[in-house]
Specification:
Cofactor: Zn(2+)
Organism: Polyangium sorediatum
Helix content: 25-40%
Distance between the termini: 59 Å
Keywords: Carboxypeptidase, Hydrolase, Protease
Structural class: alpha+beta
GO molecular function, one term: carboxypeptidase activity
Largest sheet: 7 strands, mixed
Family: Belongs to the peptidase M14 family.
Number of helices: 8
Strand content: 15-25%
Number of strands: 17
């Protein structure tokens, strides 16, 4: 049996193995001491009972999040399933009997950049969309902006961003689900949406961290979702590029898509606490979350982190900064790493992306 993380987004340290058992440890982000994400490959274990022990899981960024959690596995990086997983407070143990010679294991379903490249190729061939480079990451990887719909005066400007935190791969599955539906030419929801609005999508804000297998940070060790108030062209050019594009186009609605380690359902966070927060924004948030909850049984309109004190909203955070700057509906969508009652996984994340467009359309007339 051979274990390695020589993959796009791969992350694990092999400390030893014997037969079908392997001792592993979490690898820290490339420029920060954060450990939580794992994605690795096992080869040569077909038909054998494999036991994979991450012996330092108790030292992760969110160790208690491993309670009640089951890891994801895939033979082809397309179809993912949960495997028996046990956490004793120190060690996270994955047990599985692979049916094929090669199997991948991930904290959540991996989403490598070649999958994004294939998606961008489909988008670029559509008459509904175009792909624009709006900047580059710390290591020079392109930041892609997908524009759907014709830009005319008076149309609403709707933004979706994914993977500020590279280990929150559910964001990419959500974005893919939304994009595939937006490209469909026989869908009344998206036909209406693109007639009334322009949709701007940044599918992966943090390509360096996504390639390196980081959990939270970019190649400079920055948490991009704490860079929005004053992004650095040297250390957080990814956010600076997205902000600049937003200033040029305008924003009427912003969905920033993330993952939550502890929750067992998806939920949304608004801008309560921002200095400019108003009753109008509260009603917009309530309309959107209730609409999405009606459409998706795995989304809760009740869960949140609790509002910041009035006027104390952290404007370093993407949805807070955008909401304050553009006085618009601006929300962070959080999705679970855990499967929860709805059996959450990449397919469900993509489904939530599709459903979110219906909630966006229902909110459209009230945005301004």
């Amino acid at each position: 049996m051979h274990v390695d993380a020589d993959l796009c987004g791969g992350s694990i340290v092999v400390t030893g193995h014997h037969g079908a058992e392997a001792e592993l440890s979490l690898r820290a982000d490339s420029a920060a001491g954060i450990r939580q994400w794992f994605h690795f490959r096992v080869r040569g274990a077909r038909g054998r009972h494999v036991e994979l022990t991450i012996h330092d899981a108790g030292e992760a960024m969110h160790p208690d999040a491993f309670h009640g959690y089951r890891a994801l596995a895939s033979y082809d990086l397309e179809r993912w399933f949960r495997v028996p997983t046990h956490f004793d407070g120190r060690r996270l143990v994955l047990q599985h009997r692979p049916e094929h010679d090669t199997v991948h294991y991930s904290y959540f379903a991996a989403y490598p950049l070649d999958r994004l490249a294939a998606l961008l190729s489909v988008v670029d061939r559509s008459p509904r969309a175009r792909v624009l480079p709006i900047g580059a990451s710390v290591e020079g990887r392109p930041i892609h902006l997908i524009v759907l719909g014709e830009e005319h005066p008076g149309k609403r400007r709707l933004w979706i961003t994914g993977r500020q935190h590279p280990g929150e791969t559910m964001g990419s599955w959500f974005v893919e689900g939304a994009l595939v539906r937006l490209l469909a030419e026989d869908d009344l929801v998206t036909d209406t949406l693109l007639h009334e609005a322009v949709v701007y999508v940044v599918p992966i804000v943090n390509p360096d961290g996504s390639t390196r297998g980081n959990f939270r940070t970019n190649a400079a060790g920055r948490d991009l979702n704490r860079e929005w108030q004053a992004p650095s062209r040297e250390l957080s050019p990814e956010v600076a590029s997205v902000r600049s594009a937003m200033e040029q186009a305008g924003v009427d609605l912003f969905l920033d898509v993330h993952g939550d380690e502890h929750a067992d359902a998806a939920f949304a966070i608004g801008c309560a606490g921002n200095p400019g927060y108003s009753e109008r924004l509260y009603e917009l948030e309530r309309r959107f979350t209730r609409s999405l909850a009606r459409r998706d049984g795995g989304f809760s309109s009740e869960l949140d982190y609790g509002a910041d004190d009035p006027g104390k909203g952290d404007l370093r955070i993407g949805n807070n900064w955008v909401g304050e700057r553009f006085d618009c509906l601006s929300m962070t969508i959080e999705m679970p790493f855990k499967e929860g009652p709805s059996g959450f996984g990449p397919d469900r994340a993509a489904e939530l992306g599709r459903s979110s467009l219906e909630a966006v359309l229902e909110s459209l007339g009230a945005l301004r």
